[in-house]
Design a protein that fits this description.
This protein is α/β, with parallel strands linked by helices. It is built from 12 helices and 9 strands. The strands form 2 sheets. Strands 3-2-1-4-7-5-8 form a 7-stranded mixed sheet, with helices on both faces. Helix 1 packs parallel to helix 2, helix 9 runs antiparallel to helix 12 and helix 10 runs antiparallel to helix 11.
């Protein structure tokens, strides 16, 4: 259930249609810091590969992170010699800062980045970006941990990589397999709405972006890659691992408190079969039933424990009322977040008030059952009381789900009569957040590897 239709909502995915030759379809960013030795062979090899295999116009952007050696001069020389190469200089370090700046300013509809050491086989580049061009996916990542990947690296890095991904799965419930591979791509319309939510400016940038995208329901495509470890890598493993763990804690806390506006990333899903108007198929019913059953089972156990505790000090009716009241508040809060997907604090008080009305109906059912039991026998056994309460609670649970779905947490998408504007992007300075969005279609046209680029005159 969506609770927000703010102006950040993404348009439905579409295949990028054809357009004039020379328009860059892909912008590959290479973030560098003091890479005077590896930069030139990397850029020339990447350019040769794209020129030979990529069917659209492209651009290679060198993002210099405040290098103090001759890297800036090498980058400028490459940009002067190769028309498809540009350079971007930042006066502060940070891979995430560089990607945010270049991606925010780029006019290419598909944005990618790769590490300067080219550890990843370039044959995976076209499979990486193809799902973004076709409109099938929102982001794409290379995975060194897929079954069909071929990876050559030492046991230390292998252990660190797998341990980090296990941490992500255990703490942030991440389902993507490899967060750290320096080989990723994203659609520009997605990036310009997702990037303002990403706080990290260093190595955790990728992970945070992927976690937020996954939690928002965006589609992440994974490509198995062939990868060879660079023994001369300048990455400081201990410091990077420490910063990553701090980032995991920060993002996990933000997700737990509902402080991230992930609803603004929810697209209208014009291409999502789950939101098509199908007769006799309630939207989201299966998922909601599973969530409600799990919450209901835990709530029932919680209720029975409370009842048994209160029963020691008071009568059955009072114990039942107290136990049901406490468990009802917890049940409403859990169903609000987990079953019906309502995030944030907006409407929480109203939902709890409506939940108490539902609680009153459940109280009437269970209290009536106890009254009938006491009328039938003067001193019923405790086990008999529990059995009667379980049966009454089952009936109350069915009624609670129907009332929650139809009254407390209704799916209001069908009631949104106001037309929803579609949003695209407007140019803005690197690092800035666009204030307004308008729907634009980027026109693309396949070009042969040796077609003349209209940008040669610059």
């Amino acid at each position: 259930m969506r609770t927000d239709s703010s102006p950040g909502t993404l348009p439905a995915r579409e295949h990028l249609p054809a357009a004039p030759a020379g328009t860059p379809v892909l912008d590959v960013v290479i973030p560098v810091y003091n890479e005077e030795k590896d930069l030139q062979p990397c850029v020339r090899r990447l350019h040769e590969h794209l020129d030979r295999t990529f069917p659209y116009a492209f651009r290679i952007t060198i993002a210099d992170n405040a290098s103090t050696d001759t890297t800036p001069q090498v980058a400028r020389r490459l940009a002067a010699q190769i028309p498809e190469v540009t350079t971007f200089r930042l006066e502060q370090k940070g891979r995430g800062r560089a990607l945010r700046a270049v991606w925010s300013a780029s006019d290419a509809p598909v944005l990618a980045y790769m590490d300067v050491d080219l550890s990843t086989d370039l044959n995976a580049l076209l499979p990486l970006v193809a799902p973004l061009i076709s409109g099938h996916s929102d982001l794409a990542i290379g995975s060194r941990l897929a079954r069909s990947s071929r990876v050559v690296r030492g046991p230390k890095r292998e252990f660190i990589s797998r341990a980090y991904n296990l941490i992500l799965r255990g703490s942030l419930q991440a389902r993507f397999s490899d967060a750290q591979c320096g080989f990723k791509a994203i659609r520009r319309d997605v990036a310009q709405i997702l990037l303002p939510l990403v706080e990290d400016t260093g190595w955790f940038f990728d992970t945070e972006m992927l976690v937020l995208a996954e939690r928002a329901g965006l589609r992440i495509h994974e490509v198995p890659v062939d990868w060879v470890d660079d023994p001369d890598s300048t990455v400081h493993i201990v410091r990077t691992a420490t910063d990553d763990l701090k980032g995991v804690w920060r993002v996990g806390r933000a997700l737990a408190t509902g402080s991230l506006p992930l609803d603004r990333l929810a697209r209208p899903f014009g291409d999502d079969p789950r939101d098509r108007d199908l007769e006799d198929v309630p939207k989201g019913l299966a998922r909601q039933l599973v969530g409600f059953c799990v919450v209901g089972a835990l709530s029932t156990l919680f209720y029975l424990l409370l009842y048994s505790g209160f029963r020691v000090f008071t009568g059955s009716q009072t114990a039942n009322a107290l136990a049901l009241l406490v468990s009802a508040v917890a049940n409403t809060a859990a169903n609000r977040r987990l079953t019906f997907g309502v995030r944030g604090r907006g409407g929480a008080v109203r939902h709890q008030a409506q939940g108490l009305v539902v609680f009153g109906i459940g109280l009437a059912l269970t209290s009536g059952s106890l009254a009938a039991l006491n009328a039938a026998t003067s001193e019923p056994a405790h086990s008999t009381e529990l059995a009667v309460l379980v049966a009454a609670n089952l009936a109350a649970t069915v009624l609670r789900f129907l009332l929650f779905r139809a009254w407390v947490f209704p799916d209001r998408r069908e009631d949104d009569s106001a037309p929803v504007a579609s949003y695209g992007t407007t140019p803005f300075r690197a690092g800035d957040v666009a204030d307004s969005w308008r729907d634009t279609t980027v026109q693309l046209l396949p070009v042969r590897p040796h077609d003349t680029d209209a940008r040669d005159s610059r």
